[in-house]
Amino acid sequence: MAFSLWLSLVAICMMGAMSPGPSLALVLRHTLGGGRVPGVVAALFHALGVGFYALLTVWGLGKLIVQFPLLFQLITWGGAAYLAWLGVKALRAGKGGAMHPGQVISTNGQAAREGVLVALGNPKLILFFVALLSQFVTPDMSMTAKVIIVSTAMIIDGGWYVLVAVALSHSRVLPWLQQRAHWINRITGVLLIALALRVIAGPLV
């Protein structure tokens, strides 16, 4: 995989990880309920779930492109529609969203279990990956390239949410985020809609 193409993959995976949703709420909840360690545990196990979906997507996309090109195109458009829906949802979130998690008492075991379940229990995540990885997967892609794609998705997802957990372990950070949640949501929404339009435009070259 060319370095410039990998950088595009990194940017898109970062957008996916940073978009508001249940994953962010999960990490926030466990960090506030149990401290830094449960938040980090939730982040790492969520990344494992993301890696599992990414692996399934990479394995299946090449065959799907060759055998069912029309179905592949429809699924890709469905993924783009999901990205756009996420963008609109973020734009309409205002100051709410995942910035106000409920108060819970969290343990490492609970954080690990829920981290995996939130990733695997969200069927929309597979659409997200189809929309993303359709830009990079080809029928003749090497095993090394597939490993790079899956590893990149896992590392970025886990790294982002670990960073969130560590940052939120400092009591001054959360109020700052809450005060600026509407701007975070608006910026994320615009970028997600732009990404959806890029997916509709066709594969990266």
From TrEMBL:
It is found in: Cell membrane. Keywords: Cell membrane, Membrane, Transmembrane, Transmembrane helix. It holds the Pfam family LysE. One of its GO terms (molecular function) is amino acid transmembrane transporter activity. One of its GO terms (cellular component) is plasma membrane. It comes from the Bacteria. It is a multi-pass membrane protein. Its main location: membrane. The chain crosses the membrane at residues 41-61, 68-88, 115-133, 145-163, 183-201. This is LysE family translocator. It comes from Vreelandella rituensis.
